[in-house]
Hints:
Rossmann fold, 16 helices, 494 residues, alpha+beta, Glutamine Phosphoribosylpyrophosphate, subunit 1, domain 1
Amino acid sequence: MDMHEENSYALQDSCGVFGCIAAENVDLTDFGLANNIFLGLLGIQHRGQESAGIVTGDGDLIYQHKGMGLVSNVFKEEDIKSMKGFMGIGHNRYSTMGSSKLVNCQPFVVDTAQNWIAVAHNGELVNADSLRQKVLASNVGLSTKSDSELITQLLSRRPPCGEPEGANWRARIKMLMNDTQCSYALAILTKDGIFGVRDPYGNRPLCVGKILRSIEHGAMECVGWVLSSESCSFPSMGAEKMYDVEPGEIVHLTRKGVSHLEIVQPLRAEDPSAFCIFEYVYFARADTFFEGQMVYNVREECGRQLAVEARADADLVSTVPESATPAAMGYAQTSGIPYVEVLTRNRYVGRTFIQPSTRLRKLGVGRKFGPLTANFVGKRIVLVDDSIVRGNTISPIIKVLREAGAAEVHVRVASPPVKFPCYMGINIPTKEELIANFLSPDELAKHVGADSLAYLSIEGLHSAVRKGIRSNNNKQYGHCTACLSGKYPVELEW
Ligand code: SF4
């Protein structure tokens, strides 16, 4: 299954954030600030396709442009040219809290007693309801249902008694972090720079990088710094990753460089960090690096582990294009069964606004995938998918393969069964809609028309993820598996 397809109703990511600032003494006409942010947002387009926005600043004025739709539709050349300044942040949105309307587009901008701020948020606050009541009770109005607006208002609060009126943004961010534990990765633009903040559980990803420009004799100079949900957005603007922002860390990007401000611990000291393991399974782009390892390699390792746990007798291993391809390759390497493609994908399906007739809609996947018939007629296929959520996308694919002449189809899923909802920013269907809560693997195989079906175990997924981790400081961080195990990293309010 490819969750990044349009019209996919499986799992959806919650948003992507990006920030960029030019170094001192850099020629801003050559630097292309808004263009860099535009490219950065394009690079993380898979994290949200409903709306996009950019806010830039020159230390005094701010410039903003937002709109509904894909990044390339929202920004025209004249919009990019009109956005001045030496720093800015951007956001791609997929709505988890608050509807898909222009009013909810980010970054949110508010004027405060300490000048304006703009905020871009990825994640979802598990205690949003009580915080909302708290904010409203303090006579502050809210114009949307979005928890990201809530964060923006909380940041603009007066500092507590005893702190000077002009207490700095760092103090306000810490106040926010003590009130809102999970989950958020934030890019916050102020008059003087950009703050990058990751919640104390490290549930959503965030990393920093530097923009390099070649100078004489093959040497490189740093001309600016970037902040992003994923490092895959860096190469398009000549940037390279420096490091992941740590769980609970506040970093500050100014025209002089990136500085670490501090690390805020979770409220309960015994709570482990909980980076979303599904970022590895399929939210992130395969060329992104988290915790020192490339997502593609982790997916390959999941496939290898799956072959150890659930080898099938078959003639070839294949993939549901394209997100399951690395796992299928890994499965093939370990099982010794050759990797052969059995489906080709029509990249333009989903881009049309013409709705098919009922007969054509029933053919469904037949429009998305074409069978590479000559590769598999009469053969036994291991078909690797990256996940099964409702179970309604894999059965039409199996039907296509069988009708085209496959002798057997054995489904292998490179992640464990999804059984629980996510309250931390990923839109997972309710428990009643998750097929793994009702059907065992054998029953599910029958239901989808496969000869057999097996999932990767939770331990197998953990070991695939842990194998290549090289963190900034050699610390091992924990991973959230709540949608698989039902063990949530934080106490839920309900
Ligand atoms: S519940 Fe699942 S999707 Fe949500 S943060 Fe945890 S691992 Fe990620």
